Amino acid sequence: DNGYAAWLRYDQMTDEKLTDEYKGWTGELVLPSGVPVEGVLKTAAQELSRGIRSMIGTTPTVTHEASQQRFIVLDVLGGGTWVDQASGIVPALSDEGYILKTIHEADREYIVAAGRTEKGALYAAFHLLRLLQSGAAIGQLNLIESPKYSLRMINHWDNIDGSVERGYSGRSIFYEGNKVLTGSDRIRDYARLMASVGINGIAINNVNVHREETFLITEKLLPDVARIAEVFGEYGIKLFLSVNYAGTIEIGGLTTADPLDPNVRAWWKEKAAEVYRYIPDFGGFLVKADSENRPGPFTYGRDHADGANMLAEALEPYGGIVLWRCFVYNCHQDWRDRSTDRARAAYDHFKPLDGRFEDNVILQIKNGPMDFQVREPVSPLFGAMEHTNQMMEFQIAQEYTGQQKDVCFLIPQWKEVLNFDTYVKGAGSTVKEIAAGRVHAYTHSGITAVSNIGNDENWTGHHLAQANLYGYGRLIWNPELTSEEIAKEWAAQTFGGNEKVQDVIVNFLLESWSIYENYTAPLGVGWMVTPHYHYGPDIDGYEYSKWGTYHFADHKGIGVDRTVATGTGYSSQYTQPNAEIYDSLEACPDELLLFFHHVPYTHQLKSGKTVIQHIYDTHFAGVEQVEYWISRWLELEGLVDEERFRHVAGRMNRQLENAKQWRDIMNTYFFRKSGIPDAHNRVIY
Ligand code: BDP
């Protein structure tokens, strides 16, 4: 089994009793408003038929009038069919929400899978398939589902030459050799996977837009892009494009990209019109400006509101939006000038601009102030701008968390971020509520994340990394789901119902983030990775670097002083009580201690251990944990198909090598630096 089907396997059922039970319900698929010949409802019907055929072995009759005693109904609520009445009053159902309800009448019984819109109906169809796939009882369904976030997006960092920036699973599924891959089935299969977990927007090219990709918004490439958009559209997904801020210079024949220049503004309006001619339901532009050597409004003495609003004005007539990234910091700093702090940058740049952005601009903010480290505090910019739309950016690609060679299930990390209380409007101002536009009244908001897929057969390189993709979609549909619920759902659909298999996979996933943290950089300090590559240890790799990410380890201590009194003052960017908690050596949580404070190695943590002993212990523990999970995985031989069993076992051995390397380098380094021996004499000089 190569893993290509991911969680949409729809394996033939083996339980005969249950198969018979399901057969009774699934013989007929009724679409009261007529069997559609195109559109999202058609997709929903097709998906249901396909899944049912594959699992149960019979193909349902698709019809607009019921003739059997038991059947499934697929519909859009409010369409005036008899389903409206049968469904009763459905409160609080958003546009993309749906119901799944079993209705018993005197002479017939049926399951209604209906959305407020066609998209909702598609999500209902996938939900019903998920229930069937997991062997659930369907005779008494009464589910109402609404997504928490209106924008549920994925960002691809795919380049048109076919490479993927920070890609760990092969090459792009969208491009090769400076061409858009229009005829590929893979794009459709990808859209299916994404729609099945509720994704409704995908930006298909890298935020670092090189010259060739700049043409994606021109007639040269738009016909091809439009074909992808069409496939996406069938699955309820809007297509977005990253644009080159200096497009006017790069391909527009102008000498400036000044956002206030009338010619520049006219060029962007023309481009927007062109894009919408080819893609009427185009989502909008994603922009990385003045960041890591990309062009931006700073060159012209303008600010980011000027830049974003120029694009907003161009997209506004068509309902398009601008996703403007806040990953802006000085990557050319002099490392000897230690008064600067990269963590401060986003807040310092953007907070003063609150209220200046157009309504169709959304600021896209990375979850932490740095860059997707294994542990970071939540970005203090999130929620700090009452009058500016914001959305959260996560990274599904495991750039700093094992690169899909090591297992690191990120749902627990994202849940911590979403549950973080910013207090920006008093207690309860959690990230998850802010992103839903419920703390400040945002016009647009939501969540996005950098994709972890490529053209590897199994999409994500490591089979277990599929769990992050699945889990991301499920979590941003409903952030109240627990990590365990998500891991269980995914494992059951992807690896089948065997209890032992379930137990090993689910528990390994749930522990994996803390294991990865154990054997890598300690206590929130981050960045002890090989520069540029970001896999494997290099303690001082970024220590004397212009990129500005330092840990300040010397023979006396370690950590970054970000306090107000003696440090960079970063802690003051938080609202109280967070500012005070982080600023205080006593109150700061252990796991972020070195992010906020510089301490001697003998500093005692809340756990009772010293910092140095914590470093030693966690690094030994991390390796032992990987060894333990390898032994548990090996117990699954014969219970998981051979191909996936071997593949995962192979990757776990690589993970073990990596963990050992981290352990040995980190422990030896800190032993030499500090001269303090390990309490258990395991660390040798
Ligand atoms: C960093 C990556 C870099 C990206 C950048 C970004 O190392 O490749 O271009 O983020 O988010 O994580 O723009």
Describe this structure as you would to a colleague:
The chain has 685 residues and is α/β, with parallel strands linked by helices. It has helices at residues 16-26, 40-56, 82-87, 118-133, 185-196, 211-214, 222-234, 247-250, 262-278, 304-315, 345-350, 411-419, 431-435, 466-477, 483-495, 499-519, 578-583, 593-596, 611-634, 642-674; strands spanning 28-30, 61-63, 70-76, 98-104, 109-115, 142-145, 151-155, 175-176, 179-180, 201-203, 238-242, 284-287, 321-325, 361-366, 390-395, 446-450, 557-558, 599-600. The strands form four sheets. An eight-stranded parallel barrel has the order 7-10-11-12-13-14-15-16. A six-stranded mixed beta sheet has the order 2-1-3-5-4-6. A two-stranded antiparallel ribbon has the order 8-9. The longest helix is centred in the C-terminal third of the chain and has 33 residues, at 642-674. The structure holds beta-D-glucopyranuronic acid. Beta-D-glucopyranuronic acid binds at residues 165-166, 207-208, 288, 292, 327, 371-372, 399.
Provide a quick synopsis of the model.
The chain has 685 residues and is of the alpha/beta class. It has 20 helices and 18 strands. 36% of the residues lie in helices and 11% in strands.
